Structures are given as C-alpha cells and as structure tokens.
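Hi R.,

As promised on Friday, here is the backbone we talked about, encoded as structure tokens. Could you run it through your design pipeline when you get a chance and send me back a sequence?
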C-alpha cells in the first residue's frame, strides 16, 4: 500500500491503537518532550498538551523552530496558562509513514492541540482531518496542506521567497548567463512554492537560460550531495549561478562547487541558514540567503494552537515575510538576530 493510500484510516483504527498509546502516556515521547524550566510559574491546573510534529529533527531549521516552541511554552506558563508542548518528529524528512503514525498516536493520546509541519501536502490530509473531527484543533506551520479545515496556517511566504532569490540571482549575473535550480523533494509544499517563485522571477531575465531544473536533491545530506556533485560535474564549464530552495540543498551545492574549485566563480543563492552557511556567506562562497524566522514560526504556532484549544479565535493564515541577506548587509542588527538565533537559551546546547 502506498503512503498516500495508507493515510486513509478510520477512527476505529486510531482507537485500536489507543490502549497502547495511552498506556505509554504522554511522557513516552522520549527526547521530544520539553521539560519545565527555571523561572516558569507552577500551577496545579491540568496543562493544555500541544503536540508539535516537525518535518524532521536534525536540520538547524527545525532546532530553531523547536526553540520557538519552548519560548512560547515558557511564556504561557509564566503568564498562568499551564501548557506542555511535546516535540516529536521523524529523523528524515522523507519519512511520511512515520509522520502519519505520529499524528495518529497523538490523536489516540487525546492531546488538546496539534502543530504539524506536513512532509507532504496530500498524504497528511486524512490524519489531520481525523484529528479535527475528534475535536483536536490543528495548526499547520511551515508547509501547506491541501485542506481548509486546520485552525490556522503559519508559514513564510514561500513563493515570494523564491521570487526574491530569483531576482537576486538574475541581478548578480547582470541579466545574462546559465543557471541551475536544484529542487528539494517532491510533495514538499514549501520548497515547491519557492521553486515556482524562483522560476517565475528568473523568466523576467530573457538572457538567462535555466540549464537544469528537474533534479531533486532528496531529504538527506548524502542524496543532496550526490545530486549536487552530478550536476556540477555535468555543467561545471558552463554554469554561472545556482538557486537552492532550502538549507540542506544550499549546503550540498556549495560543497560540490568547492570540491570542483569553482565556488568563487559560480553565484549561489540559497535558503535558510546554519553556522556553516553563514561562514560561506561571509567568505563570498554564497552570494545570498533568503531567510525565514523559524524561531518566531514555532512560537506563533504554539500560541495559536493553545488559543484554538481554548476555543478562542485565531487568524486563519499568517504569512511571514522572507528576507534576503547578502555579504554586504549580514552585519546589520536585523540580520544578525536571524543568522544567530539564541538556541542555547532554549535548547540548552
């Protein structure tokens, strides 16, 4: 059975899993649980339990979202609203089956709300709509879902981010040259929107040719690096610029260009940031990064889920504006905060 069809499960299926899930208890979510922190007000009231399910847990982006989740949890508890946010997601961003199962298990456990960053815009529809029909409000964050039933959608304006990246790359090349779009993964709504925005923008430069736009990097660093190496080996003598729609793809393509010794020659515009990407930006190996605000995304998503669980109105959609950071503006205070989020304050690392 395919992943997409496996999402079509019934309420009886979830209830059948309930005995085991409830027996394990909410504390059985392992390292994904966020613990009470010093300075947080203690209340005897039963906490509102919010399950937060990211696409993955290894990339820097998700660690920053997690920090925002903890920030919201701390603030709500300190303000007298007892909240417990449980963080649990797949290790790899192509594990749709695991993410579907995680949603199912949280439904069975009877959490009061769910924040989901869906791996696939269609495969997660059935479990999300079952949660909602079970009176568990769902907030979708980061990546769109093909359903209008969630309480709220909180994400970067991804298509606009792609347009910003495409316009910047076109200007870097003086409106002439050959470029590559290395895509991320099929079914990932957020990156597909960025890719569409890039293609829309780059077409406004009639003397720029897209020489490759149909290769997907895949969900892991290994697959992304292999795809990057293959592309650069093939086009190293003609490529002038590359656009990458997310952190792992940006890392992989820059590494592949460096291996070939053409990292100073080819213009790279990517998405998101890590300490390594920031160093490459500073060194001039990357010429622009379209930034999101993942800490604020996690923060806003938990606040919205708690409000929805309390029966309060929430905004149906919250589009967060992407920002372009370059070697020239990266030291400005507004960008320094995005490039160096306070992860240690919230994650203790």
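Update: got your reply. Pasting your designed sequence below so it's all in one thread:
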């Amino acid at each position: 059975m395919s992943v997409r069809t496996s999402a079509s499960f019934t309420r009886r299926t979830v209830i059948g899993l309930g005995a085991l899930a409830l027996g394990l208890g909410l504390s059985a979510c392992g390292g994904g649980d966020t613990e009470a922190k010093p300075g947080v007000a203690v209340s005897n009231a039963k906490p509102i339990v919010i399950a937060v399910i990211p696409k993955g847990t290894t990339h820097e982006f998700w660690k920053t979202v997690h920090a925002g989740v903890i920030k919201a949890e701390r603030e709500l508890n300190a303000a007298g609203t007892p909240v417990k946010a449980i963080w649990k997601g797949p290790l790899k961003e192509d594990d749709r089956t695991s993410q579907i199962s995680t949603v199912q298990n949280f439904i069975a456990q009877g959490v009061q709300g769910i924040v989901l960053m869906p791996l696939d815009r269609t495969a997660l529809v059935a479990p999300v709509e079952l949660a909602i029909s079970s009176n568990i409000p769902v907030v979708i964050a980061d990546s769109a879902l093909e359903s209008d039933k969630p309480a709220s959608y909180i994400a970067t304006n991804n298509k606009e981010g792609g347009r910003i990246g495409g316009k910047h790359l076109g200007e870097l090349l003086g409106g002439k040259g050959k470029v590559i779009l290395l895509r991320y993964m099929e079914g990932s709504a957020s990156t597909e929107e960025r890719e569409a925005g890039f293609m829309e923008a780059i077409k406004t430069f009639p003397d720029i040719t897209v020489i490759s736009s149909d290769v997907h990097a895949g969900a892991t660093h290994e697959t992304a690096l292999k795809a990057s190496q293959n592309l650069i080996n093939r086009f190293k003598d003609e490529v002038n610029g590359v656009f990458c729609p997310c952190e792992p793809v940006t890392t992989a393509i820059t590494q592949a260009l460096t291996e070939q010794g053409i990292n100073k020659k080819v213009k790279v515009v990517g998405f998101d940031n890590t300490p390594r990407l920031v160093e490459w930006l500073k060194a001039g190996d990357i010429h622009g990064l379209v930034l999101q605000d993942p800490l604020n995304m996690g923060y806003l998503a938990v606040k919205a889920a708690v409000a929805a669980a309390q029966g309060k109105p929430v905004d149906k959609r919250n589009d967060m504006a992407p920002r372009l950071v370059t070697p020239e503006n990266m030291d400005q205070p507004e960008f320094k905060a995005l490039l160096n989020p306070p992860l240690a304050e919230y994650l203790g690392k």
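One thing I noticed while checking it: Confidence is low (pLDDT under 50) at residues 1-42.

Thanks again,
M.
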